[in-house]
Amino acid sequence: MTGFDAADSAVDGLGEIDGTWADESEFAALDARIEADEAEGRAAAAQPVLAVVGRPNVGKSTLVNRILGRREAVVQDVPGVTRDRVAYDAFWAGRRFTLVDTGGWEPDATGLQASVAAQAEMAMQTADAVLLVVDATVGATATDEAVARVLRRSKKPVLLAANKVDDDRLLADTASLWSLGLGEPHPVSALHGRSSGDLLDSVMAALPEAPREAGTVTAGPRRVALVGKPNVGKSSLLNRLSGEQRSVVDSVAGTTVDPVDSLVELDGEVWRFVDTAGLRKRVNFADGAEYYASLRTKTAIDAAEVAIVLLDASEPLTEQDLRVLTMVVEAGRACVLAFNKWDLVDEDRRHAMVRELDRGLVRVPWAEKVNISALTGRAVRKLAPALRTALSSWDQRVSTGQLNGWLSDLIAATPPPVRGGKQPKVLFATQAGIRPPTLVLFTTGFLEAGYRRFIERKFREQFGFAGSPVRVNVRVREKKQKPKAGGKAARNR
């Protein structure tokens, strides 16, 4: 049951409401019901980690999608689409585990590919078990043998998947993979799903019940999505915060394709940051990896608790910036606006920004704002307090009695506008949920959108909620129809 449903069912137990405000004690049962409902399942158990590694274009991301049972990892028929290590929640045989997809590993890579290889090596070091994917139609290459040597030294469970075994004729070819020294090769077809269940059974046997390094925070780190248009500095900011080359950075826009998870310690607290692909201006016209990357970005926003929206302070606000903000607001996530590249802003640009923000950010006047430079590190430590403020507001609750006491004074001073010749009456209100905070007004008639925005604005002035969206919903109570004399009710007597 959701908090919204809990509010409705709890309201039914309050009896008839005649429009007079009740004492706070009369709403105690309602508040307790909603809060108990929200508390269910918040803390998630720690999950073991399986890293999927291998050289480029052997079908790692296709196999990841097969294991997940859905199209999450970006797949395209060219090598090198996956560039960062990307974590997904997976489930098999009653157990949950974290599945990490990586870019293709090359031992002698240079430039951008060297960064990709470093990400794969980091995944191997931090995982509880490793799944090495090899192209069975090609056999063991020099790169496969180099990866196998690294994995044999890692002293952790390693499974070998011989991919692209689409029919029985290729089964004999997998025998040569014993030479890698990683045990029995598991012949699978990621594309068609052949023997993927048998492979997962072996994975479950190899994975420990709990991760090697369990976190100290039982509820898990707070999830932060880094979003913004391409080349605004998202990956650079993540690298600055983590103190390492966690995301692949290049001067070419669109280097990040998949959302990238990172555990980052910031201001004494561990956060789970997700670096996302830049959202394009017209996703409907995108194709291939770019199209699916945009879908993954939306999924990352939905899975996050708070979003850091990066804006280029050195340039005017664009349609892409506003589109990103709209996605965050519609997803109901807490929000921090980070104006990046502040080191490039001069006095004239600052005056122009004031006018731009008044016009362009009218939908999010409540968002926390921080001026930073990912390149120089300017003020990036101010992000942690802004994130805490936004998340505190996102989790904040106002008791039903306190809310109704304030609302009665507000409505007495400024009653709702007349609609259809009748003035709607607000019977009472409750905060039916958090994450995001959601107010439900029970009324005798519909409230205009302008009046709902007025209530939200006054609600913020009274109770705060900086950095979090607030939703105001209206429930119109239907009048109970009295049975007519001689009708069905009378005939049944």
TrEMBL record:
- EngA-type G domain ranges (all copies): 48-211, 222-395
Listed A to Z, the keywords are: GTP-binding, Nucleotide-binding, Repeat, Ribosome biogenesis
In this chain, GTP 1 is annotated as bound at 54-61, 101-105, 163-166
One GO biological process term: ribosome biogenesis
Q: What Pfam families would the database entry show?
A: KH_dom-like, MMR_HSR1
Source superkingdom: Bacteria
Q: Please give the Gene3D superfamilies that the UniProt record associates with this protein.
A: 3.30.300.20, P-loop containing nucleotide triphosphate hydrolases
Which residues does the record give as GTP 2 binding sites? 228-235, 275-279, 340-343
Gene Ontology molecular function, alphabetical: GTP binding; ribosome binding
Subunit structure, as described in the record: Associates with the 50S ribosomal subunit.
Q: Which family does it belong to?
A: Belongs to the TRAFAC class TrmE-Era-EngA-EngB-Septin-like GTPase superfamily. EngA (Der) GTPase family.
List the HAMAP family. GTPase_Der
Q: What NCBIfam families does the record tag this protein with?
A: GTPase_EngA (TIGR03594), PRK03003.1 (NF002828), small_GTP (TIGR00231)
Role description:
GTPase that plays an essential role in the late steps of ribosome biogenesis.
> Would you tell me the protein name for this molecule?
GTPase Der
Q: Which organism is it from?
A: Amycolatopsis echigonensis
Q: What is the lineage of its organism?
A: Bacteria, Bacillati, Actinomycetota, Actinomycetes, Pseudonocardiales
The gene that this protein is the product of is der
